[in-house]
């Protein structure tokens, strides 16, 4: 029996992969010298049944190899992409070490037109809903107990200059190549907290002005 879980996964040998995982020596997220995992191998070769098994065994759909590529970056299969995104909530906005999303990498190589069209449709639908095309978790807790969704709820108007400005600022944070993901997360939290504070101050100012106006009318 092969003891190389990455080759066994690429060859779609589920029994071998299962046996290797059951030994405890390997997991669905075991990395080789290049950071390549069974998750990447299954996605790359379109072995969807095996990919689902690996996910059930704790496989991370957003795991990155040494180049920053996720399983989605490795796939050229529309069915595999849908399995990762629609069924298992893979983040199609993750960027690799070259700063590319899976869609941008495909466009660069001009491969898999059906998959390109699918990923483009996801991006279009996200923009049409007025939400940010960024990997922000709307339920991400902030130190002050607020939630990012409170901030996002104020950014629904597509023609809003403020929306465009804030999207650009968030995009700048997310595309920084010289900082770690944890540093990006911290910068995002600080950005959202500052924006929330500004919004609250703005609302309070409007309420104070309204109260003052009503008071003058009563006099």
TrEMBL record:
UniProt keyword annotation of RNA-binding present: no
Gene3D superfamilies (alphabetical): Ankyrin repeat-containing domain (1.25.40.20)
Highest taxon of source: Eukaryota
Pfam families according to UniProt: Ank_2 (PF12796)
Keyword 4Fe-4S annotated: no
SUPFAM superfamilies per UniProt: Ankyrin repeat
ANK repeat feature ranges: 34-66
Keywords, in A-Z order: ANK repeat, Repeat
Any GO BP annotation: protein K6-linked ubiquitination
Molecular-function annotations in GO: ubiquitin-protein transferase activity
SMART domains: ANK (SM00248)
Protein name according to UniProt: Ankyrin repeat-containing protein
Organism: Eeniella nana (Yeast)
